[in-house]
Design brief:
Helix content is 31%, strand content 17%. With 388 residues, it is α+β, with helices and mostly antiparallel strands. Helix 5 packs antiparallel against helix 6. InterPro entries: F-box-like_dom_sf (IPR036047), F-box_dom (IPR001810).
Length: 388
């Protein structure tokens, strides 16, 4: 019986030939061990499982082999590109920005994937979404357009009449356009989200946003929020802020501005324009508000925090209060001491526009605050001492 089994199986054993696994890639800039380490450090996976791919891709910068047999026959190599597209995308979307940049430098196929906008949208939103608004996006579009126009001039190409006009009338409040040298981004599309993210991260791109308690909490700006142009300092994880000139005053610059003192402009309008209030009819005592204020009509507006109070004719009893039915709205700025000329202000509910004078400044549009986050931010910035 044993002899029969031996004679039956012997031909198969004789002709069966084990083939070694294909060699690991050596022409990639980093090996599977590097990929394993990258993934482990990026999102905590400590074991990278083996895989078998029916369709294999050759490593040489994204060109593909026709079949697994061609790889098996020699000359090919198994790489991270052998992963199914869905699995590879799942890995890429979990990589942090620095790892995405590293992965994009490996080959043309990975570069094409790692620079795609949908992988960078999440990173842009998570890091910059709270302080980047429509004004910053428009500024980036102007920045890209001017850079393209500058590139045409550099290479002797004709610049359009439209671009010449745009370079003059770009919607920046006080600074002339600055075209930065972003050659470090290589052949990245100028209008890609990755290009914008890297420009923000490097500090090369100055963008409009607003700063609470400007100039390191200068007493004259407590509980206010002013427009500025910002540049990020990756080394300190803070910002440099450039404030527009006030009258004859030169441009003010503040360094080391932390993230918690920044926000995107809540109203998509120039700081020199009056905000048309749409909340006056619904204001009631206890509501939290922001109001535009400027020293004189040459200055830009800042947003100042206050609350809606009771009229002098009201004793504050909720059961008998009729303040919300009056055409006059009482505003209180309780960060100032009782008796201060800045403590109280009344506005007309139906006909309010900009009002004031050179002595007390000019009050503009009003925003009602409904967001708990906005209100808590103002309370967190409340001064330790009552202002005079």
């Amino acid at each position: 019986m044993l002899l029969y089994l031996f004679l039956t199986c012997f031909p198969f054993l004789f002709f069966f030939k084990l083939k070694p696994l294909p060699p690991w890639p050596i022409e990639l800039k980093f090996s599977f061990a590097s990929i394993h380490k990258l993934i482990k450090n990026s999102f905590g996976i400590s074991y990278f499982t083996s895989f078998h791919s029916k369709m294999s891709k050759k490593i040489n910068f994204g060109s593909k082999v026709d079949s697994f047999r061609e790889v098996e026959g020699g000359g090919g190599a198994i790489s991270v590109l052998d992963l199914p597209d869905l699995a590879l995308e799942c890995i890429i979307e979990r990589l942090p920005p620095a790892s995405l940049c590293s992965m994009a430098g490996v080959c043309s196929s990975l570069r094409s994937m790692c620079t795609a906008d949908h992988f960078w949208q999440k990173h842009m939103k998570n890091k910059w979404g709270r302080i980047i608004g429509p004004a910053a996006y428009r500024e980036w579009q102007w920045h890209v357009a001017l850079r393209k126009d500058s590139s045409l001039l550099k290479h002797g190409g004709p610049t359009t009449c439209l671009m010449r006009i745009l370079s003059i009338v770009r919607p920046s409040w006080w600074f002339r356009p600055k075209v930065d040298d972003c050659s470090k981004q290589g052949s990245l599309p100028d209008d890609s989200i990755m290009s914008w993210f890297l420009a923000l991260e490097s500090g090369e791109f100055w963008f409009p946003a607003q700063v609470y308690n400007r100039e390191n909490g200068h007493v004259g700006f407590m509980l206010s929020c002013y427009d500025a142009e910002l540049s990020y300092d990756q080394r300190t994880d803070t910002f440099q802020a450039r404030y527009p000139p006030h009258g004859r005053r030169a441009v003010a610059i503040e360094n080391n501005v932390p993230w918690e003192r920044l926000r995107a402009p809540p109203i998509d309008t120039s700081p020199h324009d009056l905000h048309l209030s749409d909340c006056l009819n619904e204001l009631r005592p206890g509501d939290h508000i922001e109001i535009q204020w400027r020293r004189n009509k040459e200055f830009p507006y800042g947003w100042w925090y206050g609350v809606v109070g009771h009229l002098e004719s009201c004793d504050g009893n909720e059961n008998f209060c009729r303040c919300h039915q009056s055409d006059t709205v009482a505003l209180e700025f309780n960060q100032y001491a009782p008796g201060s000329r800045w403590r109280n202000k009344t506005v007309n509910r139906k006909e309010h526009r900009e009002e004031g004078d050179e002595a007390g400044g000019f009050y503009g549009g009003i925003r009602k605050l409904s967001s708990v986050e906005e209100i808590s931010t103002w309370k967190r910035l409340w001064p330790s001492d009552i202002l005079e």
